[in-house]
Amino acid sequence: MYILVNRIQFKELSLFQKMIWRAFRLLASHHKPKGLHSVLFAETAQHQFLLETWENREDMLHFRRSDKHREMMKKVRGLINRVESVQFEHSGIPDWEEIHARFADKNKA
Q1: Which residues is 42 bridged to in the sheet?
Q2: Sign of CA dihedral 20, 27, 36, 51
Q3: pLDDT tens, 52-107?
Q4: CA-based angle 35:7:29, to the nearest 5?
Q5: Distance between CA 60 and CA 67 in Å, rounded?
Q6: Is the pTM higher than 0.85?
Q7: Cβ(76)–Cβ(24) under 8 Å?
Q8: Which residues fall within 8 angstroms of residue 41, CB to CB, at 6 or more apart?
Q9: Is 4 exposed, middle or buried (0-12, 13-18, 19+ CB in 10 A)?
């Protein structure tokens, strides 16, 4: 299984932006591209996390390069201050401790 985790920091989370984020979460749950197993969301005080599990890296890249993804990113780009991603193979869904450690290791490099 291929894991992609985005750590997103919004510019400012107004009530309207929170509604957009929740709508994005809802839409993501209804449209499943080929190879996508699941989409999980988590929030901390400063970041929102989007964890995607894919059948393989190729399916993930195919979606990321698609017109649907490009259009979605155009709509949310103005709301986002910073996005960081980690990608890795895993036998199942990793726990959040491992994900935070992977971000910490990435930032050390």
Answers
A1: 49
A2: positive
A3: 999 999 999 998 998 888 887 887 788 788 899 999 999 999 999 999 999 999 88
A4: 40
A5: 14
A6: no
A7: yes
A8: 25, 48, 49, 50, 51
A9: buried
